[in-house]
Description:
This protein is an alpha/beta fold. The protein has a single domain (about 5-190), classed as Rossmann fold (3-Layer(aba) Sandwich), CATH 3.40.50. It contains 8 helices and 5 strands, in the order E-H-E-H-H-H-E-H-E-H-H-E-H. Helix 1 packs across helix 8 and helix 6 (about 125-135) packs across helix 7 (about 145-160). The model has no long low-confidence stretch (mean pLDDT about 95). Adenosine-5'-diphosphate binds near residues 35, 57, 60 and 68.
Amino acid sequence: MSELYKTIIFLGKPGCGKGTQAKKIHDLGIGFHFSTGNMFRNIDETTDVGRYVKDLIDRGKYVDSETTVILMQRTLNKYVQDGRYNPNRQYLLLDGFPRTEDQVEMTNGYFNIVKVLHLYVPEEVAIQRLRERGKTSEREDDQNEATLQERMETYKQETEHLLSKYPNKYDVDTSPPVEEVHQKILEILGYAL
Ligand code: ADP
């Protein structure tokens, strides 16, 4: 089963545009967008696990890797069974996973990582984008200055160094307009128009 998960990883700091760009690829039908952040936000907040996850997200900390991996595998299996995600026809567009060394190790052999897209933008630009998103979205983690700073720190400490693990990594500057970045990503994926 697992080697069927032909995967494209979207990696980069909060606010770099992972979700925006992965969704655009999803909308073309090429891939299935799976965001661990969305997965966590969809958990019922009145359950123990829901409260635990919300508290961490609101403080800009990562959810522990065991919970993350178990929930991710369970959710993916459900999407395959429901027919929402077809691993034979679609790339898995992984947005926000892996984020730590142990997440990489725990899923070793689970994904066939075709390409890693490293989306990069200066930190100040990313923070500004998150502040803007916070004005119109429900996301409390985008509305709190301390949380924004903490998310950047967590990324630098836990995630940034993972980039050196991937020889099939492509750097994508996400300072240009969304559509321009999208075209660049399509080119990298071999779908140049
Ligand atoms: P962003 O990348 O903008 O911070 P996400 O929606 O990807 O937003 O993630 C929101 C939050 O969900 C993270 O700050 C973290 O608390 C949690 N989260 C998402 N993915 C993971 C993961 N792979 N491991 C641990 N925590 C995660």
